[in-house]
Amino acid sequence: MIRKIVLLHNPVLKKKSAPIEKIDDAVRTLAADMFDTMYAANGIGLAAIQVGEPRRMFVADIPEITKEPMVFINPVIRESSKSKMVYEEGCLSIPGVKYKIGRPKKVVLEFLDLEGKKQEMELQDLFAICVQHEIDHLDGILFIERAGLKARKAINELLEEKDIKPYFKV
Ligand code: ZN
Q1: How far apart are alpha carbons 15 and 122 in whole angstroms?
Q2: Which of 4, 102, 109, 141 has the fewest CB atoms below 10 angstroms from its CB?
Q3: Do 35 and 61 meet the contact criterion of CB atoms below 8 Å apart?
Q4: How far is the CA of 164 from the centre of ligand 1 (A)?
Q5: Cα 56 to Cα 53: distance, rounded to the nearest angstrom
Q6: Sheet with 118-124: strands ordered across
Q7: Based on C-alpha coordinates, what's the Rg of the chain?
Q8: Mean pLDDT of the region 37-66
Q9: What is the reported pTM?
Q10: pLDDT of residue 41
């Protein structure tokens, strides 16, 4: 089932999501709904909070990178590389707005899959960027907040072009 995506300026996006204690039918249904919602919006990643559920979970499906649609439950970044990668990010909660953000190029990620099995993966480039963006959502952080103070005016202007109220006080 496609759910409504929570948009910028909704205070729900600033909530810190809580760990998932038990992978039950509610979690499995939520994951299925998140995939439906993400594909309908042509996204490559979606966090549960973006459909209004403050639970530590996100889904991702990156063409030519993830081998299959993936569910990440209680994800934790164990290691981050010193080397950074700059990528023009977007977000389904801020439709139409893209901005270049620098983040660690490689990360080691620990998470539970939908079967509750503990997984560890070493990720790089777009996959690493994607999981960092989604884990930020679980902590109430939006990618535009990673852009640094100097970028705030430019981001407000990009938002206004998409008829979205300015986000930053500059
Ligand atoms: Zn996002």
Answers
A1: 28
A2: 4
A3: yes
A4: 16
A5: 9
A6: 45-47, 57-60, 70-80, 106-112, 118-124
A7: 15
A8: 97
A9: 0.97
A10: 98
Catalytic residue numbers read 134
Query: Ligand 1 mean position to 27 CA, how many Å?
Result: 20
Interval 113-167: pLDDT, tens:
999 999 999 999 999 999 999 999 999 999 999 999 999 999 999 999 999 999 9
Q: How far apart are CA 131 and CA 62, in angstroms?
A: 11
Identify the burial level of 69 via C-beta atoms within 10 angstroms of its C-beta, where 0-12 means exposed, 13-18 middle and 19 or more buried.
Answer: middle
> How many angstroms is it from 90 CA to the middle of ligand 1?
7
Cβ 70 vs Cβ 86: under 8 Å? no
Residue with tokens 């535009």: 144
User: How many angstroms is it from 54 CA to the middle of ligand 1?
Assistant: 14
Q: Which amino acid makes up residue 162?
A: K
pLDDT of residue 170: 83
Checking phi first, is residue 116 left (phi over 0); if not, alpha (psi -120 to 50) or beta?
A: left
